[in-house]
Amino acid sequence: MLVPGVWVVYSKTRVCTHGQTYEPRGNGKRVHNSVRDTKCTVRVNARVTATSNEEAFQTFPEVITVDTTHDTNSNRYKLFSFVVHDVFVKGQYVHYALVQTEHMVNLRRVMEIFKSNNPEWTKVRVVITDKAFHEKKVLLEIFPKAHQLFCQWHVLTWLKKQAGRLAPNVKKEVKSLIRLLVYAESTQGYEDAKVALLEQLGGDSSHPLYKTFQDNWDSSQEEWVTY
């Protein structure tokens, strides 16, 4: 998204009125309001919602994807993108929020702003995130009726990355089994793929990849397995 040429500055950070006045230490060459050294812990730097985006959410509010892009600038801000899918199964961005950190207080504020600008939020039934999304309990708090799922693309990418450390003759088979696990259409199909995965790892249940899978993924399969 290009920044309009009429904008005097490309970024503004609002100072929370609950905090104290911050005296800048720069030489004045760049106008910037900082939220550092204030008592309020909220760090929401900007949020963007267009009319066309709001209309997309009003039409397709049931499923929403919340994605995080890290290190968007020199300050390493995080960009939250809210996406819905239209009738052509094409992603439509409905909300952006630029924050300093992924701390709970920031995530909660981002969600509250989204809700205040989108009355249709009550119709959200599924929220999709990646495994790295912190403070998932904030989503449960903000969208209590919505079921939380992991993005299967992110699951595949993360697990295949772990498999990349294996020997070449094992790597290909393990990656194929990971795909079978993600897209399993039944409990039996999932269990069969898991047994085959353990066999490929030499039957060693203490193998780092298998142990990581058991500890972090197997117990939450309802959030990422197809069935």
Automatic annotation (TrEMBL):
<protein>
    <recommendedName>
        <fullName>ZSWIM1/3 RNaseH-like domain-containing protein</fullName>
    </recommendedName>
</protein>
<feature type="domain" description="ZSWIM1/3 RNaseH-like">
    <location>
        <begin position="53"/>
        <end position="149"/>
    </location>
</feature>
<dbReference type="Pfam" id="PF21056">
    <property type="entry name" value="ZSWIM1-3_RNaseH-like"/>
</dbReference>
<dbReference type="InterPro" id="IPR048324">
    <property type="entry name" value="ZSWIM1-3_RNaseH-like"/>
</dbReference>
<dbReference type="InterPro" id="IPR052579">
    <property type="entry name" value="Zinc_finger_SWIM"/>
</dbReference>
